[in-house]
Amino acid sequence: MQGDPTLTLNVTTITEESRRMAESIKPGSAKWDVIVVGSGAAGGMAAHELTTAGIKVLLLEAGRMIDTRAEYRTMEWPYNSMRRNRLPPGERPIAVAEYNFLDRPYAATPDLAKSDKVTSYAGNTFTRNWVVNEKEHPTTGTPYAGVRARVLGGRTNFWGRGALRYGPLQFKAASLDGYDVDWPISYEDVKPYYDKVDRLLGCSGTNEGLVQVPDGVFQRPSKLNCVEVAFKRSIEKMGRTLIPGRAGVTTDGVLHNKYRMPCRGRGRCGRGCNLQSSFHSPTALIYPARDTGNLTVRPYSVVSEVIVDPATRRAIGVRVIDANTREVMDFTARVVVLGAGTLESTRILLNSRSRDYPNGVGNSSGLLGCYLSEHIMGIRGSGYMPQRIGTEPTLDDGRPVAPYIPRFQNVTDKHPDFIRGYHFQGGGGCTEYPGMAHDTPGYGKAFKSSVRKHYPAIISFGGFGEVLPVKDNRVTLDPQVKDAWGIPVLRFDYRFGENELKMAKDMGDTIEEMLTKAGAEDIKIGRDPLPPGWSVHEIGTARMGEDPRTSVTDRFCRLHDVKNVYLADAAPFVSGGTQNTTWTILAMAWRTMDYLKERMKTGDV
Amino acid sequence: MSKSTALPASKPVSGITRRAALRALGTGAGTVALLPWLSEQGLLAFGRIQEAKVATAPKVLSASQFATLEALVEAIIPADERSPGAKEARVADYIDLLLSESDDAVALQWMGGLAALDEAAVTRFRAPFARLDATQVDALLAEMSANELTPQSPLDEFFVMTKHAAVQGYYTSEIGIHRELRYQGNKFLNEFVGCETEDGKTCSHCGQKAEK
Question: pTM for the complete prediction?
Answer without folding.
Answer: 0.92
